[in-house]
Amino acid sequence: MDSAFGWLGQLIEWFGRFVPRLRIVNTTLGAVKFVHGRTPKALGPGLHWYWPLVTEFSAYPTARQANALPPQTLMTSDGRSVAVSALIVYKVEDIELLVAHTFDPDNTVEDIAQGAVHDVLSQQTWEQLFTGGRPLYTALRQEAQKGLSPFGVKVLRVSLIDLVPCRTIRLMQSGVTPAPVTFQERL
Hints:
Elements: H1 2-16, E1 21-25, E2 29-35, E3 39-43, E4 46-50, E5 55-61, E6 65-68, E7 72-75, E8 81-92, H2 95-99, H3 105-121, H4 126-131, H5 133-148, E9 153-165, H6 183-186
Antiparallel strand pairs: 1-4, 2-3, 2-5, 6-8, 7-8, 8-9
Family: Belongs to the band 7/mec-2 family.
Protein name: Band 7 domain-containing protein
Domain Band: 20-177
């Protein structure tokens, strides 16, 4: 019976595209309206009308948010391999720059923040990472801000979650396996 009346649902959906719609954007969100698929218009909180036939509506959080960055390994300036994961806290100040000019806003923020963490930490020695304190976190925030400001993002904080020395073993696709590492060698 569903397939017999499935065409009726499709017909109603098609006619619905000609009816203007109301969207509510709450205070923690912003939105971008793409009129005719090419003209982005930034929208703040409130009530907004759009016509689904010629307009695409995309909402995205603009309030303070925190994203945990995945772990990465890098080499310090004194040649030590470390594993590091970080947290970035930010808010979106210009929704149009972030949503209308990037394919995946979350991925863009994550990629640029990970690059900033790499750039700052790889210029430090192992000792400087532990004695860096506030200047290290300031350098991390400033580097992330430099990369994210063209996308309308204000970085509030970048914090290190994990920072541990590690031994990196990269497995090759040729079938060669690395020699096993004993517990004493890891220390």
